[in-house]
Amino acid sequence: MEVVSTAKRSAKKKHISTIRRREVMWCYIFLFPQLVIYLAFTLWPIIASYYFGFFNWNGTGWPTHFIGFQNFVEVLQDSYFWGAFKNSFIYTIGLVVIVVPTSLIVAIILNSPKLKFATFFRSMFFLPVVLTMAIVGIIMKNIFAFEGGFLNEVLLNIGVIQEPINWLGNTAFAMVALILVGVWKGFGIKVIYWLAGLQTLPKDLYEAARVDGAGIVQQFIYITLPLLIPFLVVITFFQTVWAFNVFDLVKTFTNGGPYFGTDVVPLYIYRYAFEIEGGFPRMGFASAAGIIYGFATMIISIILGILVRKFGSTKTT
Amino acid sequence: MNKRMIKIILHLLFLVITLIWVYPLIWTITSSFKTNREMFSGSTSLLPNSANWSDFLPWNWGNVIENMNFSNYVNAWELANFSGYFFNTVVFTVSVVLIVLVLCCMTGYVLGRYTFPGKTVIMAAIVATMFIPAGYTIIPLWQLINALGIGGSMSGLVLAESGGTHVLYILLFAAYFRGLPKELEEAGKMDGAGFMRTFLIIMLPLAKPVIASTFILQFIQTWNSFFIPLVFTIHRPDLRTLGVGMYSFVEDNSADLVGMAAGATISFIPILLVFLFFQRYFVDGVAGAVKG
Amino acid sequence: MKKLVAILLVCLFLLAACSSGASNNENSGDEDKVTISLFSSHGQFNKGNFGERMVEEFMEANPDIHVEISYAHGSNYNDTLLALASSGDLPDVIQPTGNFSLIDLIENDWVQPLDDYVRDGFRDDFPDSAFAEGINIIGDDTYTFPRIVAKRGSALYYHTDLMEEAGLDPNAPPQTWDELLEMSKQITENVDGAYGFAVPLNEDFPHVILLAQAMQPTLDTNGFDHQKGAYDLDSPHVIEAMEFLLKMRDEGVIHPNSPTQELLDYQGLWANKQAAFGFNGHHFVRVNEFELDGVEDYNVAPIPVLEEEMQHSQLSLGADFNAYISSTTEHPEAAGKLIDWFSSQEFYERQQAEDLLLSPLDSNLDEIDNEQLKNLANVFEETVVARPVFEQDEAAFKVKQEEAALSEPQKFWQVVQGAYIGEIDDWQSELTKINDAYNERFQQAIENVQAEGENVSQDNFTFPDFDGTKDYLVE
Q1: Does residue C11 have a pLDDT over 80?
Q2: Domain B80-291: which topology?
Q3: Does C82 contact A279 at a Cβ distance shorter than 8 Å?
């Protein structure tokens, strides 16, 4: 009896382990395509871009002229790199400061049960999100033109300004224009994020507050805002990363001009890698600049990531 | 009554704001019917000088075609191959979205529901890509695609865009599958369903909300993608997507403002229609992703 | 609803798959037909233009050859060619932009000599000056050939009707800077919606140097002085020209969109009569006619000079480049036949008559029908001077090549733009700074080539006996 049962058990065990082995095998089969893609299209390009950073290389053939850290030193010493870096930073800050609060206000209005045609309004705000960035840049270039530009014509006609503004012919105004267009393009998606956040708020809390005699403003400050902080951090995070990597819009809208006034780092790198006015591309240099900028982005992401963690955990407690 | 008036005024105010918001699009559409001379001298009217509102009356119908400069569209269509660009964009977007969906769904499912040797390492590697500074990866990517022999082809372009790790989607899927009750598999096993069947018949249908979110987010992103199509169609003008096609059209014809407007209109009208038609799915999808 | 979306998407997808399949079949047509690809940077090969018609005629005459034309312009072309080269996909025949010199192309092994594939006595069909060592030939090897007249440069283009409207004599375009300023003022004041002058400040376009050349005719448009054998971007004459441009700006006669204009934007602006005067190159008559809806009532004159007794003068090379046969082509004979057609007398004559580009062969200017083109040819006769060809010396050539490989200082046009929009206050010292940087880079290139054991120095680039007023003749 004893013998039989152990045999049975071991058979059963064996059966379980074959099931288990088959399961593990299936897991690997499921992971396989993603792993191949990961190694080829994520890991390899990262490693290669680090490698290229140490070469003087024009992009044809395989790099052979090793120059150590020379590219990195040159990037760090290049005042145009820092100029572009500063512009990326201004653009990001400008976008976050404008978009995050205003999109919340619009979301609150859209979320109000008193608003009629909410779907229509919501769609209108969301429209620019679905447009191709490159096309937005091209359209806006014409809207912001000095002579014959639509914006100036309208502002002059309604008397907001007396003299036309040279939006794209002046570095400060060009940055303002770039930020405005950036806001316009990405605004709708932030509104949706906020709406998602607002819909998670417990209704009974407001009832209780109203019973206690809290007004709309007080409800907003003491209930809505604290509950939305996790969303605030996530939205800020997305907006920052998005703005830090802006390329299409700048390329098609201002192309970094006038006189580097809106030159951002992704465009700076692109110029060295793909545009060859006066000589051949400098792929090694472009790679080095990309790595340095990547580290800068990483530091900012980590700071924001820590914030996400911190507020994410307060949410669950 | 007074309260009602305020409400109407507030609604009107909000309406004005939204109209200003979408005015750049209206401007583009109206511009596409004008002449270059009008555009250069800065005209703000909705109609071209040559047309009157009365042209739109049914009995004046013939005038509309004559006065609205439809030739801009004919030129943009013929000169700039916008039909081809549109087609490329559809093929490109649909392929990329499907590939990303399948890959992320499978990875997320396994990572969220099973334990196996090496799981932590894989998870860590995937999450790490979010934080490793990537450098300028487009150059090795370009070389890789060429080395695979698919440089300058639609499949190369699709692979370049859909390759790479979509950490957010994988995590979304993993979290969603992890949250499904354990009994589902047990029930499946009772019925003798294997791994594949459990996944396809039991799990996948339940994952509809995440699939929808991923689909929408990736759809918007791919449709608007510019950098990879720009680089990867650089020597294949016939493979260009709408964004890149528009860009090169303007590079070559920047004095043709009305042609630009007509091209832009052709480029954004389809996606606008798709959006307006399915806008509930768009909005729910985005909201679903951020909630998860 | 979802099902509908899915079905719709699948349908679109299938449709696309079918259509791409169909186009693939098209390519593999009959087997004896040779297909060669031509990649051009010139607008004349755009869809529906002269070049396309000529290629069609070529294909009719050579039924065994099929030519596939593709085109791109400016930096678009450069990027594309580079991408094609690095993926081993070079077209059979290329017509690159001026950014690629012969030495670049040879160094990268992108092109091959065409002598074996074209008619005998190819070079004899052209004037003696048409070929120069390092520009289009290396020794006995011919790599490319002229496309348009070698003696060419820039000119003042002006709208006669706008001048008339402002009460000016349309037959008396501005000849001096003062006249240019005065007439620009009158036009800005008297013509509604038009400005006197416009410049494409967001482009590497040498308007300031064009103004300075009357005083310093040995300066080329890159700012290199061929008498001194060095860059001279901060010379008193360049500074004077720069000051004049800023004066025009301060007087408000320059179109305010200028700071953001690239060349094409600017040409469109000018052609739409937003400005009465503008500088432009030799090809603008054709661009205006075929790409900008053919504005009328305009004419051509030399670039205005500082003082009346001066004469405008600009430098050019006697030799020129056009199409090359790529090193990797599988059908060099077919490519050679195409080049025979592009370099034929008939082609050049028709190009001049139908596409408004001046012929590189000696031709009678009276035969030109287009008034503006005829005037342009006369302007070039008067103002263009052939510069010394230092490229003939192999070592000197290597220096230029080495120079291009070293990292480039800030560009001259960017300083002009920065000064114009008020971003650079002290632009004079900025000019000195970039001039020093260019000369330093140049010296570095010389040293690098010397280090390879070549016998070369700045003397190879210095031609003290060249004064820029007449052709520098080489024996």
Answers
A1: no
A2: MetI-like fold (1.10.3720)
A3: no
